[in-house]
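Quick one, tokens below:
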């Protein structure tokens, strides 16, 4: 769910929508969601999303929405890494060909 927002680094969702998306029982109170859903999410996704934080948005005393923030991914960096891999592969092929010609 969060992966689609990796370019923005921000995802806001109403608590009702969040419960529906993750099939959280309607009987869960916010403390249950904290303990059984949000804490494990933060622990499990820490490697995939740098600086992942969950903020509870309240209306009065009631939590009405959740805001997930994390460091956005730099797509240009990923593209550059992919280009470097392609270049490395091309150089490897060229050096193999040169070596084959050299040993003839």
């Amino acid at each position: 769910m969060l992966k689609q927002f990796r370019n923005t680094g921000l995802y806001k969702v109403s608590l009702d929508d969040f419960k529906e998306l993750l099939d959280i029982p309607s009987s869960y109170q916010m403390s249950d969601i904290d303990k059984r859903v949000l804490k494990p999410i933060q622990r499990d996704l820490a490697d995939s999303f740098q600086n992942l934080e969950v903020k509870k948005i309240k209306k009065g005393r009631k939590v009405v929405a959740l805001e997930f923030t994390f460091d956005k991914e730099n797509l240009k960096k990923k593209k550059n890494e992919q280009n470097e891999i392609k270049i490395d592969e091309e150089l490897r092929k060229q050096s193999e060909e040169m070596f084959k010609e050299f040993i003839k």
